[in-house]
Design brief:
- The protein is mainly β.
- The chain has one domain: Rieske Iron-sulfur Protein (3-layer Sandwich).
- The chain is built from no helices and eleven strands.
- The strands form three sheets. The protein has a four-stranded antiparallel sheet, with no helix packed on it. The protein has a four-stranded antiparallel sheet with strand order 5-6-7-8, with no helix packed on it. Strands 1-11-10 form a three-stranded antiparallel sheet, with no helix packed on it.
- The radius of gyration is 13 Å and the shape is globular.
- It binds FE2/S2 (inorganic) cluster (FES).
- FE2/S2 (inorganic) cluster (FES) binds next to loops.
């Protein structure tokens, strides 16, 4: 079943920034702003249990703070060792200036 979860307002995540969102009833989520376009993924690294929003974000790549593995936030693809399993991504819905994810 798909649930629409309120994440934040657009202004809460500037271009090049990321935001941790812990919404009731949803898995830990990360919101990324890539040059004005928003993407949402699981916030939990697939290599272990680190929170990706504690890491580094540049361009469309987020780097895990624990072992330096990387993911493309648009596709969820693992792009750097030791991460191999892709990151779950979620569709983003923009309503006015509010961001939602379908999880
Ligand atoms: S926990 Fe993220 S790279 Fe190991």
């Amino acid at each position: 079943m798909v649930t629409k979860v309120k994440l934040c307002n657009e202004a809460d995540v500037a271009p090049g920034q990321m935001l941790r969102v812990d919404a009731p009833g949803a898995p830990p989520l990360a919101v990324f702003n890539v040059a004005g376009a928003f993407f949402v993924t699981s916030n939990v690294c697939t290599h272990n249990i680190a929170m990706l929003t504690d890491g580094y974000f540049e361009g469309d790549i987020v780097e895990c703070p624990l072992h330096g593995g990387c993911f493309n936030v648009k596709s969820g693809e693992a792009t750097a060792f030791p991460c191999e399993k892709p990151l779950q991504t979620y569709p983003v819905v923009v309503e006015g200036d509010e961001l939602y994810a379908e999880v």
